Records
---
Amino acid sequence: MRITVIGCGYLGAVHAACMAKLGHEVVGIDVDERKVSALSAASAPFFEPGLDALLKEVQETGRLSFSTDMASAKGSSVHFICVGTPQKKGENGADLTYVDAATRDLLPYLSPGDLIVGKSTVPVGTAARLAGIIEQTQPAVHTMWNPEFLREGHAVSDTLHPDRLVYGIAGGSEEHIAVQVLDRVYATPLETGTPRLVTDLPTAELVKTAANSFLATKISFINAMAELCDAAGADVTMLADAIGLDDRIGRKFLNAGIGFGGGCLPKDIRAFMARAGELGADQALTFLREVDAINMRRRTRVVELARELCGGSLLGQRITVLGAAFKPESDDVRDSPALSIAAQLQLQGAVVTVTDPKALHNAARRFPELHYEESTEVALQRADALLLLTEWQEYRDLDPYEASAFVSSSKILDGRNILDASKWRAAGWTYRGLGRP
Ligand code: NAD
């Protein structure tokens, strides 16, 4: 099939490459010339494991191309909308200008029978509104919403082997011709038994925001327990292990730490609350305000702990922050708790050096006032305290004896509770975790 992917960021670039890998002829369209020229040269414009290799592999087949020109959508039968839906400035709601613009710009290039498939995360009701607009000029074009559940850092395998496919279509009928078309797009994962759920449009939109809200709630739940553990002298990692053994609860997403960030969870739960308010159902989601508040409190807590670790004042303290990305295996720094903590420490008088294996370039664009150092070894030198804030493998693997040779004071705050506290203490370090005695 010939497929268009509009918006080639973290979601769209991976989706385009994976659709080509599945055998389709794909054109990726983005307004950002820099991204399009990188992708055209088979180079990912951001770090995602396996994406560079996949781009090279599929571009050699001639099935994948990129363009800034929406006219290249002409001739495709399926058009995926993968543009951003960031938080509006100064408001909780989602900014839908990109989704609206992409849809509007696509309309002149559609043919009867074409299928528009939204993958961006949107407030419930958006798909029906867009379907109405599309129908006015292109009555024979179908609209579906097919939310995306990929995880950055695993995006290629999550796209090629999704754990479920959700198809939203007006009326929710499995018999709709558009369902058969999307089945052809996803023929390979469907053949291997990927569950496929056909729903109406609002349910499909809600599946995504509900899933993200659940995950955010789980993280904030364990972080609230970490606050309690701190107050009571208990250990949140043992608590998580113990409650996680109950398979109704599960151990995943129960790691207490500096909280969630990134380009999805924070803005998605806020947009969800805003949309619930518009629908007159705001009471149903007031708990998400608490989830958000617990999450943001983690950042303040880490700054407080860092101050304690530095003997009561941050002024002039040389602090090395290990990790800038919002999670390991990604260079994404959108709403990264690590960077936000680094910036707060700097504002309070610390001399902060940030290091990260992949995200320094993005971090420097967001927070140019911070000092960045590529080499971990150099970053450790003469530090008065270390803060481990993104759990990259190389930080998990740090040897406390070797590290102590570089720093000026052996103090570490493990913001992800991933280090072996006893090992670090045995090597002479003052070790602090979150919610751990
Ligand atoms: P992103 O900012 O990385 O990418 C968005 C891209 O859309 C940018 O490259 C931008 O230039 C492009 N764009 C904007 N307007 C356009 C237009 N009119 N025409 C063509 N291109 C346009 O964002 P992302 O992380 O890829 O997220 C995209 C959507 O997918 C969001 O709704 C997000 O919530 C959702 N999502 C993201 C992830 C993820 O892990 N990143 C996972 C699931 C869902």
---
Amino acid sequence: MSRLVVVSNRLPLGENPSGGLVVALDDALRSSGGLWIGFSGEPVEDPAEELIDHPGAAFDRLSFDLSPEDHHNYYLGFSNSVLWPICHGRADLAHLDPVYLDGYRKVSARIARLMVPHLRPDDRIWVQDYQLFALGAELRKLGVRNPIGHFLHIPFPAPAECATLPNPAELFDWMTHYDLVGFQASRDMDNFAASGFHMAGMEQIGLNTFRLDGRTLRAEVFPIGIDAQSFIEEARDAPDADQVRFLTNARLMIGVDRLDYSKGIPQRFRAFQQLLESIPDLHEKISFLQIAPPTRSGVQAYDDIREETEYLAGRINGQFATLNWTPIRFINRPYPREVLAGLYRQARIGLVTPLADGMNLVAKEFVAAQDPEDPGVLILSRFAGAAEQMPEALIINPHDAHETAAAMASAMRMSIEERRERHAAMLQVVLEKDVGWWSAAYLEALEQESTKEQPEN
Ligand code: ADP
Ligand code: G6P
């Protein structure tokens, strides 16, 4: 079996990684072995001109350094101030600066250069996510002929959103240098086909095949999963000590997200406020725990979302709290996976209300963690990729506080029979399409694609 080489911006070197990409690939590589290449984590003044080995994991790990300037332009800049907001429908938050795009191109070329000496002729290379759209094209320029695939963990933009990029045509040039590109949901495939046609003249020549400038590309949907079985066990075995305790007879409603504007956290706070305003009987009966570690600090939109959520949580607590009850507990730090698993299991409601999201693994983790005999209810945004796979959740429009509040009320009232029925249907998908299924399905498709002849230049 040939070696799997995964490349992503983030490489898991510390404890408690939060972010779907690392959680999923960690699970995938643990079982298959292989090599994972990624950023060392902190920018350094004098970056090493080689990859650095990090022994001690179930797979090999090599990291690349970035200078503060490269980190700023490539990671904070083009990746997270241009691509991320535009792919999540927030062009209004994008900060278009030509220096960012130059930094992105430069870092992609550098990573490719550092990787080449470590590659073996029969490696399969699997590049992850929007930070590395350009890596495949750079590897090809250096003569790498191995199968190279890309998987996009976030939504792919529709034509009107794509048009807000500074370089829409170049995006499709980058992408068509891969043998296979994978998306989370069918809406992403549809957007890819429509945007590629409108922005770059990319032709669809088959159900899953596209052509641009003489290059042929296969594109397909592979919804990412979780390590469902181990999550079920972790939730079942979670220690009692990690449970949330209440002074009143309250039920737990839980949200777990990076503190990102795409996650709809202010919207869900407002929906909860709407619930408490409209149904006073629920006071002291429901308590909302939102766990949200800050992320990407240094990007203005992330600093703003932190302030906005702190303000809203404080205001709602001020308005409704009693001596024995705090309506919202807002915690800004990561927790180990087994603690999260136990918290999900304790909750009557899991609140997953992104305004846009590739998949959303928290939705699947919540389902896996439930006691099938007495499961909680998942409230899920129609804009999460997970909604395509789990229509049995209470599907809501996260912009609509009334609709979301009504879903909270109905989850509180829902009969045990209905809860079991909905949960069983969702659990089946989470178990069948788990992370092992996802990586095997993707890698099998990549295997089928032979290395392409590249045009000159
Ligand atoms: P994203 O990839 O955009 O962050 P996902 O929901 O797909 O969103 O994945 C988030 C992953 O990070 C999940 O596996 C979740 O358990 C984990 N995570 C999120 N918040 C925390 C936290 N506070 N502590 C630990 N892990 C977290
Ligand atoms: C999302 C992205 C990942 C990213 C993660 C955490 O899951 O799709 O690519 O790694 O968020 O974000 P960060 O910027 O901290 O790596």
